């Protein structure tokens, strides 16, 4: 969690650069909570099941990369200090998810997506743009994004190999956290996006899920 000191614009740019490097560099994010997968025993998975589980976890890892970038972009341009603090707090909590997903991907013998830098840059730009327009729009975008993430997690929980309890434990905890992020964003004054906007967001997210499953 960041301290309450006041940062200059240059300080904030340097923080954003450092966060981007830590997000995109393997094993650089230090979680504040241990992975829910740690206490569970490894399951016997076939090669096909292992690759499928790794592909799903790779999608979720890239989703967390996008969330981190979105929050950082919004924090950079947020007009109200309390909104900036809300974004920074959410970004800090997403570091746990990043680390858990990467740990699980590596344990399954795979690597994170090679497209993460591209999706980070795009998400950062979207977040910064939303923050420039309106804090309420920015918070509403967070809530809508987290709703979309929860739907993806529900789908992945259904698609995971039945024996992969470790990945399942990670996704279940992530879903609980993401649901809270959405509720906090709305409680802080975020707009509730209409269904057509959410549908458009879901179409964009499908590009990410289709490409990062294998790449």
UniProtKB/TrEMBL annotation:
Binding site for Fe cation 1: 64, 94, 97, 178
GO biological process terms, semicolon-separated: ubiquinone biosynthetic process
CDD domains on file: DMQH
Cofactor(s) it depends on: Fe cation
Membrane topology: Peripheral membrane protein
UniProt cross-references to HAMAP family, sorted A to Z: COQ7
Function: Catalyzes the hydroxylation of 2-nonaprenyl-3-methyl-6-methoxy-1,4-benzoquinol during ubiquinone biosynthesis.
Protein name: 3-demethoxyubiquinol 3-hydroxylase
Lineage: Bacteria, Pseudomonadati, Pseudomonadota, Gammaproteobacteria, Pseudomonadales
Gene name of this polypeptide: coq7
